[in-house]
Amino acid sequence: MKKKWALLSLVIGIFTVLAGCEPLMVLDPKGPQAETISNVIWISIATMAIVVISVFALLIYVVLKYRASKQDPDYEPPHIEGNPIVETIIVGIPVIIIIFLSIVTVKSTYEVEATPQGYEDQEPLVIYAASSDWKWHFSYPEQGIETVNYLYIPTDRALEFKLYSYGPITSFWIPQLGGQKYAMSDMITTLHLAAEVPGEYMGRNSNFSGKGFAENVFNVKAMPEEEFNEWVEDVKANAEPLTEERFDELLEPGHLGQLTFSGTHLGFLPPPEHDHGSSESHDEEHDSDKASGDETEHSDHQ
Known about the structure:
Helix content: 40-55%
Number of helices: 6
């Protein structure tokens, strides 16, 4: 009786806690990349639910149909070497499920790695996002400003984040806008995002990077482009300039609040040269290969 009441209390407690939970951020997308990821998650959940429900239904059917109480005491089941139909089903269905999920996963991976659909002809807003222990530095080279631990972005515009780190490997993640991507000290990784709904979102480092990892978060605010441009002009007019000495202080391990500067650190402390995942780097590499090929062909003719 005590076990029964303990189990009942546990179930009631779980439902009470869940009732107060907000929806999972990854299932509440506010941009095309996040929507693709959310759709893949729902497809995976639905596929697993079909498998689980089918298995339990078959289990109940077999237990009820072939339970011992319906057989004679002297009953001996027939010796069966194998059933081609059953074996085909139990092998074929998992193979089909794996193929289906693999196609969905590969297709969605290419989608989230590319410029968001519908923004291909638009010039993206380039933002350099650099991490240090334990803070985030956001540089807007086009606007000539920099922020620490918060990010303002325009809605309905392609965003191209250039990620790197001044310390250990971190992971840049805004769950409601897209998936995570690593930031490393010796190379730049590129992440394409877009926000279609104005609002405030949570961003964080999702890769453990030391004792200050738990508070390595940043705030994201998406707003119409006109409002974003007004904010940029206000920062240029009122924020203190970012100097090399001040930036060296910011790189010291520790936590900071939100800071705003005119100018960026990209001039006196450039990011890593190797850019992995940028369309520009691919184009430059292609042009370099083409030039090398032309030189080789020219020398062969000589």
